[in-house]
Amino acid sequence: MAITKLLIANRGEIACRVIRTARKMGIATVAVYSDADSRAPHVLLADEAVHIGPSPAAQSYLIADKIIEAAKKTGANAVHPGYGFLSERESFRKALDAEGIIFVGPPANAIAAMGDKIESKKLALEAGVNVVPGFVGVIDDTEHAVKISNEIGYPVMMKASAGGGGKGMRLAYSEQDVREGFEATKREGLASFGDDRVFIEKFIESPRHIEIQVLGDQHGNILYLNERECSIQRRHQKVVEEAPSPFVSPEMRKKMGEQCVALARAVGYFSAGTVELIVSGADKTGDGFYFLEMNTRLQVEHPVTEEITGLDLVEQMIRVANGEALAFKQEDVKLNGWSVENRVYAEDPYRGFLPSTGRLVRYNPPEAVDGVRVDDGVVEGGEVSMFYDPMIAKLITWAPTREEAIDKQVAALDKFELEGLGHNIDFLSALMQHPRFRSGNITTGFIAEEFPEGFHGAALAEGLTVKLAAVAAFIAKSQAERARHIDGQLGSTPLSAPTGWQTKVGSEVHDVIVSDDGVTVDGKPVEIEIDYIPGDRTVEARFADEVLAVRVAPIRGGWKLTTRGAIHNIRVLPAHVAPLAAHMIEKIPPDLSRFLICPMPGLLVSLNVAEGDKVEAGQPLAVIEAMKMENILRAEKTGTVKAVNAKAGESLAVDAIILELE
C-alpha cells in the first residue's frame, strides 16, 4: 500500500520539515494541533488540520488514540511521528498496525528493544558491544540509587529510561547529589515521557559525543551515513552539532559504522535511526567508543547529515515505509564538505540560561542562500509557550571546509533578528568564535569548562570597539541629519548636524568625526562603507578587513549594537556635550538578594522552607518547572524566612516573589 496522505503526529519545526518533503513527493498532509498551536505555522502549512486537545502535551500530542482518530477522520493512511512525543512508543506503532495505518519509522520490536535505554543496554551487552559501566536494572528508590552509585563510583549519570533530548538527566558527583536529584529525574521522566524508570551509569569525564546515522529498508539493507559530533551540550541538551566530526578518522568511522549497522541488524531495524556513542577523546586507536543508546527515530540534528550526503532523510523514511529498497549502497554514501547546526533556543544566557516564554515580537531569520539553511516552525507574532520544548529554530550552514562553515554561522547569527523573549543567539555566536571550538578540541564539558561563571557576552575581538565606535557615530550623525530636516524639531533655527562625536564602548572612550571626507576614530582614518536609514534595525558595515552585520536599537543616550555574540550599549554624545556627562549621577540598582524571585513563568513544584526557617546561602529553597524541565532555586544569602508568598502547585509569573528573607 503506497502512502497517499500523511499525518504528522508532531508540531513545530519538525512538522513543517516533514510536510515540505511530503509535498515535494506529491503526498497530501494532515497536521494535528493543541489549543496552544491553533495558529501555528505547521497547521497552516498542511493540507488539513485536526484539533486534538488542550495545550499540555499529556492531553494532546501524547495521546495515541487522538492521533489515530485524526488519521481515520481525514483518511490519512500513514503517520510520521517526528521526534519526541510518540516517536519511540512501541504501543503507538502497534496501535497503528492494528488499524492498517503505515508508521513511518522502525518496526515495533526494534522500538521495544532499542527505544528503552535499559533493554537496549542489555541487548548491546549480549551482542558484545562495549557499553559504559552501569546498572541496567530497575532502581527501586533513592536509597537503592545511592547504593548503586556508590558501587559504580562517582561521578554517575542518572537518566530516565524512556528519555531523550536532554530531558530526565542528572549528573551526580556525590551521594548528596543523588539524594537531591533522583526523585527529580523520575518526575521529569514521567512528565515528559510517561515513564518514571531511571538507570544509572558511570559518567566518563572529558568525553566526546559522537553518533552514527543508520538507514535501513525492509529488504535487509542497512547502511551508515557517516557520523555527527554533538559534544557541545548544556545540561545534557545538544546545542551545536556538526558533520563530520573533527576527531573521527576514516578508520574509526568505518569501525563505528559497521558496529552500529550490526547492532541495528540484530533487531531487524529499518527506517532512519541513530546510534549514540561516548568516545574517549584521549584514545587514538579508534577503539575507545562505547554504546550509549539508540534513538529509533529521526534526530533533531539530521540536517547536517543531509548537507554532507545530499540525501533527504525524511524522503528516505517515507520510501522505506512504502516498501521501497534503498537505491544506493554503502560505497555510494558521500562525505562532501562540512556542515554545522546551531539550535536557537528560547532561553536567556545572560540570566543563567533560564527558559524564556512569550511572543515573538520580531522574528526575521537570515536568508537561506549560499550554504545557509533555517529549519523552523514559528513566525513573527507567534508565541513560545511553557508547554513545549524551547527550541525556536535550527540554523544550518554548509561549506567545503569546517572553518568556512563556522564562519558562515557567525555571519548568519549576526543577521538573525529575534525580539520579545530571551534567546541564545549571542551565546551561539560566542561558541562559533571560541578558539577551542574552532580547533576541534571539544568535549561534552566544553561549555561548563569555558563558561564557568555563566555567559556575559562574547569576548571582544581586537579592534572591534573602534569599529563599533565608527558605526555608532555614523548612526548618530544620520539621526541628527534627519532631525535637522524635520520642521521645528530643533527649534526655529535648525542647526547643522554635528560631525564630532564621543562614544563610550564599555570603559573605552573614542572621539569620532563623521564628515563628507570620511570617518576618523581618535584621529585615525577608518575605511568604512555603511548604508543606514533612520529606523533600520540592522546595518551592514563594510570595513577593509571584514563585513560586520550589526543589529541596532536605540537606548537612552546612545545605541545598543549587537554583533559577534555580544550586546554593546554605546553612549554617543556630540563632542561639545560629552564633557557634561561626568556630572551625571549614577543610578545604583536595588539589592534584591533578600527576595526569592521566580526567574521564569512556571509551576512551583515544591517549596522546601516555611516562615521562620533559617536558611544558608546556596540552600535549595524551591523547584520551578518550565518547559518540561525542573529548576532548583537556591538562597543567595544566609537569613531567616520572613514571609512566604506562594505555595506548591501554583503557576507563577516571571519576577513573582516566592518568599522574602530577613
Question: Largest sheet at a glance?
Answer: 9 strands, antiparallel
Biggest sheet: strands side by side, in what order? 27-26-25-24-32-31-30-29-28
The CATH superfamily of the largest domain turns out to be: ATP-grasp fold, B domain
Compute the gyration radius: what is it?
A: 27 Å
How many extended strands?
40
Structural class call reads alpha+beta
**Mean pLDDT, nearest integer?**
92
Number of domains: 5
Give the low-pLDDT segments: none
Total count of helical runs of at least 4 residues:
16
Shape: globular
Distance N terminus to C terminus?
71 Å
How large is the share of residues in beta strands? 25-35%
> Helical residue percent?
25-40%
CATH topology of the largest domain: D-amino Acid Aminotransferase, Chain A, domain 1
CATH top-level class of the largest domain: Alpha Beta
| Architecture (CATH level 2) name of the largest domain | 2-Layer Sandwich
How would you sum up this structure, described in words?
By secondary structure, the protein is α+β, with helices and mostly antiparallel strands. The protein folds into 5 domains: 5-104, Rossmann fold, CATH 3.40.50; 133-202, ATP-grasp fold, A domain (Dna Ligase, domain 1, 2-Layer Sandwich), CATH 3.30.1490; 210-450, ATP-grasp fold, B domain (D-amino Acid Aminotransferase, Chain A, domain 1), CATH 3.30.470.20; 464-485 and 496-583, Glycoprotein, Type 4 Pilin; 595-661, OB fold (Dihydrolipoamide Acetyltransferase, E2P), CATH 2.40.50.100. The chain has 16 helices and 40 strands. The radius of gyration is 27 Å and the shape is globular. The mean pLDDT is 92.
